[in-house]
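Fold this sequence, please.
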Amino acid sequence: MTVAPGRSAPVVPLSPRVIEAERAIVAAISLDAEIWSAARDLVQLEDLTDPACIVAWSAALALDADGIAVEYVGLAARMRELGAESPDAWLALAHEATPSFARWEDWCAAIRRTAALRRAAQEATDTAQRVAKDGAADAIAAGAERLAKLAADLSPAKHALDSAACVEALVRRYDATREAREHGRSVGIPTGFESLDALVGGWRPGQLVVIGARPSVGKSSLASQFLLAAGGAGVASLLFSLEMGRDEIMMRMASQLGVPFGPLYHGSLRPWDEEVFTEALERLRRMPFWVDERGALHAAEIASQAAAHHRRQPLGLVVVDYLQLCRAERRRTDTREAEVAEISRSLKALAKRLGCTVVALSQLSRKGEDVGRPPQLSDLRESGAIEQDADVVIFLHRRRRVDSPTLLDEQAEVLVAKQRNGPQGRCMMRFQGDRVRFVEDVQHAA
């Protein structure tokens, strides 16, 4: 594709990697409006080096200024108006070279970093020329100051806080914790269970919480109750359901609000239950949560979608159901354990980056079940990294009934097996099958 004249080529050699990143982000914005709404603030026109990408970005900015949505057909048409030849073919090639948009934030970061390096190189050249021409000490000082500022923008140290800022953050956290305690509130996001809140203090920002259980014990039901508790407190939440569909999730949540699950599933609610159903639907409508039911997502896609939602409305809770159904962005190893470790690290990084709690459900191995003991940390399937990365590890355990070993007992144990900043402990609950929910079992409380 040729481009219209009007902007000179960059004086520094073009890096193949950054050109790939520029073309990939252009491909992404042409199909995903959410990526464009974020990327336009991250990448400036002067950051780009590839002439075709410069025209494409100029076209996107022009569409945006005119109040027109940035999308494939309109972008190609506006590029043509700016003098580009065959923009449709160029965009098609860009899309063929970009099978996934999951790494769009990494592309933006690479483009910005490369642009900052170019500006630093140009500043160094300009400073040397001024010094050679004028020989003045103030030219050296001014150039050094500008270079130091550019270096600070490139350095990871720009994210560091000095000791005074760290102390202020600690004071704010302590004051908030004390105020919550004095008013009988959970310190973090409420879990929906008083005994569990008393043990873990609610869900805290930046935490990765792992909920482990064997299949069919009820971990998905427990997770949806966490969503309901957060929603009832006005906390925005996002559920990635890699196993169950949206309709089944919503039926469970409606049932947990009091609607009999069997009649709801079979469409045979009695008149008085239909009233409860209507009330449950109204409560659900008012809750700030989203459900993403796509299966086999990459961990990077989960992070990208969560970040996009977080920009629209800050999230307090992200739930992933469940961890073993996630995929790593790229299989760089031959082992599933290493892939799960990469996913685990990605979810922990997401929690810290967004300042929210990430609750990841996890399957357990059969070892504990085979010997008839409660779960323990070594039962986490496929990777010890899950235990290492998690701030809190909770096991959901239900024993098999003596009279019918194929069925699980209603009584359930919620075992806090690891808590980075608190004690281990146990909460007793009971599973109500007709409402697919857990309730606290005060009678058998530990």
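The first helix runs from residue 16 to 29. The chain has 17 helices and nine strands.
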